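The data are set out underneath:

___
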Amino acid sequence: MYKLWQQLRTAPLHFQLRRIRWLVPVIVLLLAAVHQLLLQNFIEMFFPRWAEAARLLVYTFTGSIVAWIGLSWLATAVSRQVEAESQLRTAYAKLEANHQKLLALHDLGQNVTAASDKQAVFEMAARAPLELTDAQSSTVVSFANGTNQLKLDMAWGLSDDYLRLLREQVDKGIMSERCRTCTTLHAHSSSDCPLFDGLQKQARLDGIGSLICLPIVQANERIAVLSAYFPSADGPPEDQIRLLNILGGVIAAALDNLHARARQAQTLNALDQAAQSADALDDLAVNVLQIAISGWDAQAGGLFLFDEDAQTWTCRAQHALGASWTEPRYELGLEMARRVLNSDVPLISPNLNAAAEHGLGAAAAAPLKTDGQTLGALFLGTTKPQALNARHADLLATMAHQIALAIRNAQLYAKLGQMAVVEERYRLSREFHDGLAQTLGYLGLQAERLEGLLETGQMETAVTEFDELRRSIRAAYADVREAIDGLRLRVDNPGHLAERLADYTAEFARQTGLQVEFTAVPQNIAVEPDKALQLLRIAQEALTNARKHAQAHKIDVRLRAHDRELELSVTDDGHGFPDALPADRAYRSYGLASMRERAESLGGSLTVATQPGQGTRITAVVKQLIVDS
């Protein structure tokens, strides 16, 4: 008993209770027995005179021990319950945080999937680490085509000093071979990582401890690297690394989707450049049919065109249909093509009799329609049942529509004067759709609302709506003026680029009321007129974005020539790119994509640097454009 008491007295309370908790009932019973023994036998027998005092002493001693054991037991139980509740709350909070991050990742996946170009994917990829992890900034660098150097495509959250130094390092040339083959994907700021080379001091000043690199893969090839910068030298915890890995898969899927769409776009471009002869059309038909067969893993296919005047069918391209019209697959393809001639939706037979002579398990025919006219039909057949089914109807219709557009473009190609005119009309249609058309639609709704307010006598509200209507009309007018000015842009002399850019920025400032400063070093920069026009278009698009989206007050436009390079930068003091995309619309980035395409068409590059609340800088660097003036 004494030894047990010594253990209880010297051990921590919770440890005591855990070791002897099974003895508690036994001890209580023993104490009760001792108590009774002392009271009724021992005390009465040996201390009859002091019986009352002895009883009080025994009651005090045994009662204190029992109370101590009971209260300790109760305190331990309460402590365990509090600890369990605390752990539960911590686990719930962590689960809720992970749930929110997964929701953000899900929304990001939807936006990335809906992205219309690589620029949009890069922008969302650069922003994602800041939303999903503890990253403080990020960059996207890609591998310049035809060189062994990196180029900076997107920067998010970096300080101006760090961004300037990084840009200088990129301009000097960062060899990309190590980034192409790197498997570590984590680097301390003091390491010899190419993305930290020469930037260690600034990284310490900015509180950057390390980076995590996320390869961006397209068609099983690493085309870029997303780098997330963290304050900790050890990088993010394991759960955030898992989120970044999931993000990599989402970005890869989006780029593969864009790559598939790009293949179709390349086919259309090839059609636009094809010759005007029937042979050129036949070559195009073979190409688009091969793309369709490859995309659907089909074993047979045909491109049938219909001559409405002669009411005849012509097979302009076919694969594995047979040598004549009487072949079973040929007959099946032509029959299905005839059946969809007057239809707006594809005809799909998911379960054919594979034992028939044609040997196909599934087949589909999609009408080639454009501008309300059916040009023919695309036929695809596969030996696997259900390989073509109702779920593929929309995709088939989209592909058939693209082929129809290609065929129509080929037929009308001879009537087109210059492809530049077509490109500018396409640009204008996007601008009118995104700007003027939406504004006019909004004005119509506002007019109807005003009519209702006036009918119900809500004059004060009507006055407020009139003010909003006036602002919308002014915005529509500004869009139209910018579109008209864009059509008038021209450069007639190699030495007039700075002059034309100065005139345009001055006119832009006058029409919009924004403060626009323009500088050119030197003033007599000489650039070939057609290439100078592309630079003017980039400046025009950047200024338009600053007016429409950035809510900027001051814009700085600079043109600088050095070392056979020409750098055009447009910097605004607006609110920068948004932290998160609106949930009610798919993401579009036509303006940035257009600027990047123009810069790359001149053999240059475009960099976008932005941070919420700190404006946006768009820089186009073009090499070997300057000519002798």
About this structure: The chain has a mean pLDDT of 76. Residues 135 and 230 are 5 Å apart (CA to CA). The longest helix spans residues 51-113. The chain has five domains: 2-90, 120-265, 284-404, 417-481, 489-629.
